[in-house]
Amino acid sequence: MKTEDSSLRPQGRVLIVTAVPAERDAIASGLNGCAQVDVIAGGVGPAFAAAAAAKALSEADYALVVSAGIGGGFPERAEVGSLVLADHMIAADWGAETLEGFASVDELGFGTASFSTHSGLTASWQAALQNAGASVAVGPILTVSTATGTARTAALLAARLPGAAAEAMEGCGVAAAAQLCGLPVMEIRAISNRVGPRDRESWRIPEALERLQTAGKTLLEVLQ
Ligand SMILES: O=C(O)c1cccc(C(=O)CC[C@H]2O[C@@H](n3cnc4c(=O)[nH]cnc43)[C@H](O)[C@@H]2O)c1
């Protein structure tokens, strides 16, 4: 596997994988037609995200892979309307329940449920977002196959994975595809809702999509 480089190769292409077309279009509008970046909507959940990323990576040469979209923010860590960049992407439900509690695939010896992100580019992107006036945190982003819908599950996740900033449903699928291709990975989430009791009516999707547009605009600055 390639080791992390603190900067992108000048000609390196970037693949961004979102779940749905609305997220793809928001990021793409910020990127303003930048030929260095391809944005695809791969579907909802880690399986479709991994399959879509693997297909795209088999069709062209890329230097970096990014999982992007809206997400839930953990209270006190990421407020609705803010952005979160991942320092780690953690598959919160890849493992087994045991009588003593949850055991991750790492603990079971079946691989890994935690992926490190490109630290240099994450720091540069955070700085560019802050310069653009966005509120942005850096921390672990969880990938779940079932979106959290109760305060109990939110509390269990926060206790098991201290510092978790956000959750979404695709990141680790994209990270697995990137890892198999030896490529660095990143994740960014625009927070549309709190992780906790499900209240779909309260999700601030248009605001989150606006933040994703800012994410696209500032990525352009980072790449140039
Ligand atoms: O209805 C719309 O207009 C619309 C526009 C953009 C995105 C959506 C989605 O529903 C995307 C589903 C996507 O959202 C992520 N997500 C958001 N909040 C959470 C959460 O609290 N827990 C887990 N995932 C969340 C997730 O990655 C889904 O793929 C609708």
From TrEMBL:
This protein's record includes keyword Transmembrane: no
A GO molecular-function descriptor: methylthioadenosine nucleosidase activity
Pathway annotation from the record: Quinol/quinone metabolism; menaquinone biosynthesis
Residue stretches making up the Nucleoside phosphorylase domain: 38-223
Catalytic activity: futalosine + H2O = dehypoxanthine futalosine + hypoxanthine
Protein name (record): Futalosine hydrolase
Keyword Hydrolase among record annotations: yes
Gene Ontology BP terms: L-methionine salvage from S-adenosylmethionine; menaquinone biosynthetic process; nucleoside metabolic process
Recorded GO CC terms: cytosol
Enzyme class (EC, first level): hydrolase
Purpose of the protein: Catalyzes the hydrolysis of futalosine (FL) to dehypoxanthine futalosine (DHFL) and hypoxanthine, a step in the biosynthesis of menaquinone (MK, vitamin K2).
EC number per UniProt: 3.2.2.26
CDD domains for this protein: futalosine_nucleosidase_MqnB
Protein family (similarity comment): Belongs to the PNP/UDP phosphorylase family. Futalosine hydrolase subfamily.
UniProt-listed NCBIfam families: fut_nucase, PRK08236.1
Organism field: Xylanibacillus composti
Source taxonomy: Bacteria, Bacillati, Bacillota, Bacilli, Bacillales
Alphabetically ordered keywords of this record: Hydrolase, Menaquinone biosynthesis
